[in-house]
Amino acid sequence: MTARWILRYGLGAAGLAALAFGVTTLLTDPQVGDWQGVVEWLAFAVVLHDGVLVPAVLLSGLALGARLRRRLRWVFVVAGSLTAVALPVLLRPGAPANPSVLPLDYQRGWAVSVSAAVGLALCWAAGRRALGRMRGGGGRIASGYARMRRGRTRGSGPS
Questions:
Q1: How far is CA 159 from CA 55, 152, 155, 156, in A?
Q2: Cβ proximity of 69 and 85 under 8 Å
Q3: pLDDT tens column, 119-128
Q4: How far, CA to CA in Å, does 99 sit from each of 21, 91, 102, 104?
Q5: Residue 24: helix, strand or coil by DSSP?
Q6: CA 42 to chain CA centroid, nearest Å
Q7: Core-most of 20, 47, 92, 117, by most CB within 10 Å?
Q8: 33 vs 138: CA distance, rounded Å
Q9: Which of 91, 86, 94 is nearest to 110 (CA)?
Q10: pTM over 0.90, yes/no
């Protein structure tokens, strides 16, 4: 048995155990009384994911192009993760009945977090571009220096 096999089947078994626990909890929980609501919510989640999110991600990736898509991939992962975590709070704006339940301004926190991720991506891209220009402008000097260090300068042949 290889480590890859153990990891693959171990994670698969853990996923199946988590799925069985979730289904068992759902079926035996006395607070779940509205089965129609649960089925509607699950159907809506599938339609939203497969009918809206997947085409939007694929079309935006197609519009960005491979080079830009590769550079912005982590920003989309961070923004998507932050949005998925904040979605319940973002979908229910307004003051809750108990002010201690949601004491912070979560919409603003989400916006600041996503803006910070986008800002870091822009700073990273600007820094890489500036570094590329600095390397590109000094290319002859740098390559001449490298040849000199290896003992191969122009006009000097083997001695």
A1: 66, 11, 11, 8
A2: no
A3: 998 888 888 8
A4: 33, 17, 6, 9
A5: helix
A6: 24
A7: 117
A8: 71
A9: 86
A10: no
* Total Cβ atoms within 10 A of residue 69: 14
Whether residue 113 contacts residue 82, with contact meaning beta carbons closer than 8 Å, is answered with yes
pLDDT above 90: residue 92: no
Residue type, 45: A
Residue 5 to residues 11, 16, 74, Cα–Cα distance (Å): 10, 16, 28
Which residue's structure tokens are 């990891």?
7
Total residues belonging to the chain: 159
Tokens encoding 71 = 């550079």
Burial string for 3-38 (b: 16+ CB within 10 Å, else e) reads eeeeeeeeeeeeeeeeeeeeeeeeeeeeeeeeeeee
Contact 61, 69 (CB under 8 A): yes
Secondary structure (H, E, C), 73-136? HHHHHHHHHHHHHHHHHHHCCCCCCCCCCCCCCHHHHHHHHHHHHHHHHHHHHHHHHHHHHHHH
Closest CA to 110 of 93, 90, 96: 90
